[in-house]
Amino acid sequence: MKKFVIQAVLLISVALAAIALFGPGRQTSLPFGQQTPENKNLKIGTSNVKIEIADSAEERRKGLGGRQSLATDSGMLFIFEKPGKYGFWMKGLSFPLDMIWVRDKKVVDVIKNALVPETGTKDEDLPIYMPREEVDMVLEVNGGFADGNGIKIGDIVEVAP
């Protein structure tokens, strides 16, 4: 009987550990840019980008902060309910970005190679990147993407359904 109780307790412990590690509510992390159901494809000019969409206040606040890298030809598309001059910063980033500012599905501005802030930079000392005019979307991609893909003002931006 004692052996049975020990085996039952052991089995229950293993089952609980498995549920805690792999069960419902556990979010698994795929490398950013790997195609998942919440990712979409975007065409900008003649280039294609796998994007993650940030269309809620919380998603826009977090952005790419805390990520160590971004897969080639991947990015994050920030979508706003109405056009405005939305400021972006590089807080929590460890790689340079290009910021491609979009209004009515056309590129209206490009900031190339926004640099990673020095370690220890206070939030109030971080540069804020702003578009020249109001935008309704911002695409963040790896630094050098715009030059490497010939992205320019006036290019058409289309998000695949």
TrEMBL record:
InterPro entries: DUF192 (IPR003795), Saro_0823-like_sf (IPR038695)
Segments forming a coiled coil: none
The protein's name: DUF192 domain-containing protein
